[in-house]
């Protein structure tokens, strides 16, 4: 038996990278899982690889739209009959630049993609969880949610905002059997890192390889992290063993952040 037997989880951005690793770990522990993304074909390939049959379901949608976020959460409950765990994992940024050259659009994109999507899905999930006096919300922050880096301020700002949302939500529902936490991973070379990393590196005055080297050297372990490192902690927070952990910003960064 798994520690999540019979639980239902919703993971945005769950068709690749960290989200897919969390989905796989939850399935291994007996949960039913909905993954979200914008590419149905990619999602189908991922689900075929997981081989979990009808215990995994895909709900397409663009997390930059409030109505899609709400449909993903409510659709999870409609499909599996309940919602126990929310992982608003999707997020990122675009058109990175130093603050003096950053456009309004770039800052807004990062806030909508990371912070607003987390807020929209969290709000919808809480309205399902509060009547049941039970639930787990595991937001996706970052090592950049605890530190600053030049050239990627939009991402840094959005992740700091998620941390504040998590802290406040945890205080509001702490007596209702609901925990709210944020994972703060260090750099992981996922598909999205390969996609967005070169632009971020350029904004920081680095090559992509140089960017990865900076992230590795900033850590105590002198290497990048792995998606499974994050998934393992997500399982803990989602399980009964994590019931006493709430309002926490949990570093999974190889010792990079100072707290």
Provide a concise account of the structure shown.
The chain has 259 residues and is an alpha/beta fold. It has a single domain (8-186, 226-243), classed as Rossmann fold (3-Layer(aba) Sandwich). The protein contains 8 helices and 7 strands; from the N terminus they run E-H-E-H-E-H-E-H-E-H-E-H-H-H-E.
Descriptive terms for the model:
14% strand; 259 residues; single chain; seven-stranded parallel β-sheet; alpha/beta; globular; Rossmann fold; 8 helices
Task: Work out the helicity level.
Answer: 40-55%
Uncertain stretches: none
The name of the CATH architecture is: 3-Layer(aba) Sandwich
* Main sheet specs: 7 strands, parallel
Q: What amount of the residues lies in strands? A: 5-15%
Strand and helix order: EHEHEHEHEHEHHHE
Fourth-tier CATH superfamily name:
NAD(P)-binding Rossmann-like Domain
- In the sheet with the most strands, the strands line up as 3-2-1-4-5-6-7
Cα-based radius of gyration, to the nearest Å: 17 Å
The helix/strand class is alpha/beta
Q: CA-to-CA gap between the ends?
A: 35 Å
CATH fold-level topology: Rossmann fold
Q: Class in CATH?
A: Alpha Beta
Q: If you average the pLDDT, what whole number results?
A: 95
Total domain count: 1
- Total strands: 7
Overall form: globular
- Per DSSP, the total helix count is 8
């Amino acid at each position: 038996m798994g520690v999540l037997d019979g639980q239902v989880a919703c993971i945005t951005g769950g068709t690749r990278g960290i989200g897919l690793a969390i989905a796989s770990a939850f399935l291994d522990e007996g949960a039913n899982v909905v993954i979200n993304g914008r590419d149905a074909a990619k999602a189908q390939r991922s689900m075929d690889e997981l081989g979990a049959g009808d215990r995994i379901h895909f709900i397409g949608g663009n997390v930059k739209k409030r109505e899609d976020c709400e449909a993903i959460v409510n659709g999870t409950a409609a499909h599996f009959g309940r919602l126990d765990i929310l992982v608003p994992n999707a997020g990122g940024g675009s058109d990175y630049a130093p603050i003096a050259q950053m456009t309004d659009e770039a800052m807004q994109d990062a806030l909508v993609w990371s912070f607003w999507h987390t807020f929209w899905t969290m709000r919808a999930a809480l309205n399902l969880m509060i009547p049941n006096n039970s639930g787990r919300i595991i937001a996706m922050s970052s090592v950049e949610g605890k530190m600053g880096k030049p050239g990627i301020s939009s991402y840094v700002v959005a992740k700091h905002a998620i941390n504040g949302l998590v802290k406040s939500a945890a205080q509001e529902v702490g007596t209702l059997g609901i925990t709210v936490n944020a994972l703060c991973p260090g750099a992981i070379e996922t598909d999205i890192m390969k996609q967005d990393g070169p632009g971020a590196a350029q904004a920081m005055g680095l090559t992509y390889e140089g960017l990865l080297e900076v992230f590795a050297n900033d850590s105590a372990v002198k290497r990048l992290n792995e998606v499974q490192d994050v998934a393992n902690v997500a399982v803990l927070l989602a399980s009964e063993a994590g019931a006493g952990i709430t309002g926490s910003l949990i570093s999974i960064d190889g010792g990079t952040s100072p707290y």
